[in-house]
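User: I'm writing a tutorial on reading structure tokens. Could you give me a worked example: one chain, its sequence, then its tokens, then a sentence or two explaining what the tokens reveal?
Assistant: Sure. Here is the example chain.
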Amino acid sequence: MPSFERVIIETSGLADPGPVLQTIASDRALGDVFHLQGLVAVIDAPGGAGNLDQAPEARHQVALADRIVLTKADLADSAAAAALIERLGMLSAAPVATAINGAIDPAFLLDESLDLAARAAAHQHDHAHAHSHGIDSFALFFDRPLQWPVFEQAWQC
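And here are its predicted structure tokens:
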């Protein structure tokens, strides 16, 4: 088998990313070989608001996302697309990019230089940080990487 630099896992449209993330984080064999570079949520402009209203998995995807791609913006009313982007900003600090005719700059998806600390700071609010529908988020920053056994033990709680 030829060597590779990345593995991209695509789940079905409304899959909960939690179990995949938990497997990557808790399986020692995977943790020794792979690191999670990022979670990309894809939301289509015409149906996105409805999906967020009706499907907790859609809200979970957005809340966990490191990057969000908005698709089919050309098929949606511009005011509705703008309202959807604003709503995404309330659910997540992740940057949002719009795919044009289905194309997106690969650097947006694959760049590891996104400044997570700056994203978290930009998403700070003066009020309690609770999202709608039971979604809550927080960011932890450490001075140095956690040892795998420490992370694994904390994840089990």
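What the tokens reveal: The two ends are 38 Å apart (CA to CA). The longest helix spans residues 78-91.
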